[in-house]
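Two entries, shown back to back:
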Amino acid sequence: MSATPTTTRRTLWIAGASIAVVLLAILAYLFQPWRAFTTTVVDEDLPPVAIASTAEPSTEPSASAAEATTAAEAGPTPSPTTPSPTPSPTTPSPEPTYTTLAEGSFITHEHATTGAASLVEQPDGSVVLAIAALETSDGPDLHVWLTDQPVIEGTAGWHVFDDGEYVELGALKGNVGDQVYEIPEGVDVSKFQSVSIWCARFAVSFGAAELLAA
C-alpha cells in the first residue's frame, strides 16, 4: 500500500520540525540568549591600595629639675628633688603594605564594559588582580585573562588576546561589581600589559584594560 500525499506531507513536516528543534537547542546552548537579561553581582573586598608610612615617634621635653625649696629663715637649704622620668611614647607598628604595580581602565569591545583593573602586591609578596566597579554583559564561558597583547579600540581589538601569551585567572565571578583574582605563583607580571574579559566559546573580548606601570 503506497503512502498518500497527506501521509507524505505529515512525515516531512514531522522530520522538519524535529530538525528545527535540534538546531534551536544547539543554538540556545551556544549563544545562551537569556544571559543578555541576567546579572551576577559580586562584592568582594578589594585590597587597600596604599603604602603605609611608619609614623615618627614624638618626643616631649623632659621636665627641668625642681628648684630647691627654701626653708624658713632658719635651717639649711634642702637638696633639689629629681622628678620622675617622662615615659617615652610608644612607636606604632607599621601597617601592612600594599603596592600598586600597574593599573588601567576597561574599554568596550564586543559588549559595553566599564571598570578599573589593578595589579596589587600584597604584604606577603603575592600579587592579585583587583577589578573594581566592573560592569559588562553576562555571557557564556567568560574568563579573566592576563595577556601580553595591546588593548586596541574597536573591532580590531576584539580577537587579539589569544594571539600571544596569556594567563588564565579563572572564570569571571560576576559581570557586575568588585572582584579579586590571584595571580599564580611564579608568573612574572611585568611581562603582561593587559587584562581581558574573554569569551572562550566565541574567542572574543567583551572588554579589556591596558595595565600601565603605577
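entry 2 starts here
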Amino acid sequence: MKASRQMFWFLASVGVFVVLLAGWQALADARLLPRAFFPGPDLTWRALQRGLASGDMLQDTFTTLRRLALGWALASVIGVGLGAIVGTSAWARAWVAPMFEALRPLPASAIAPVVMLLLGLTDAMILTLIAFGALWPMLLTTVHGFSSIHPRRLEVAQSLGLSRVELIWKIALPGALPDIMSGLRLGLTVALILVVVGEMITVQGGLGSSILLAARAFNAPGIFAGIAVLGVIGLVTNAFFAWVEKYALRWQRR
C-alpha cells in the first residue's frame, strides 16, 4: 500500500513537470515574446547539447559542484561544531547570543564587497561567501537541538560521570541529530544559491559565470540551459540528502 502510494505521487509529480514543460513550449511557440529572449525547451535542449559536446558545460558544472561542496563543508564544520559548544553551555549562549543576533540578519550579499576587498575575485572569496550564508541555518538549528535536550538525560550523564565530550557525543548528539540534519539540508540550499551569486561576481568559471556571460551575449538558450543544470543539481542534491537524513535517523522509526 505504501509503495503504491509513493509510486502514485511520483507519477503525479512527473505529470506536473511534463505539463509545465508543454506549457513552456506552447508559450514559446506562440511568440508572445521574441524567441531570442524567451526560448522554448527545444532551443534550451540544443544549447545544452552544444555545451556538453564542447565540454564547457561539464567543466562549469564540476567547478560549481566543487565550490558548493567545499563551501557547504566549511559551513557545516563551523556551524555544527560551534552550535554544539553553544547549545550545551548556558554561559556560552549568554555571551555569544547578542553577536549571533547582530550577524544573523545580514544577507551574504551585504558582506560581499568586504570579502572582495580582503580576498579579491578569487575562489576563496566565493567559499567565504558560501560559508557565511550557509552557516546560520546549521548553527541555529544545532544550538536549538543541543539546548533542547531533556534535563533528565543531563542528570543521568552527570550521575554516570561522563566528561563534556562524552556528554555531547553519547547523550546530546543523538537527541539533536534531527535538528542538525534539517540545518544541514537548509544550508545546502543556501550554499547553491550563493555559489551562483559568487560566480557571477567573480566571473572565474562555473555555471554562474556561464549564465552571466550568456546574458551579456544575449544568448537566451545558454541562460536557460545553465538554469536547467542548476535545477538538476538542486534536485539531485536534495534527493541525496533526503536519503542520507532518512538513513541517519532510521533509529527514530524503530
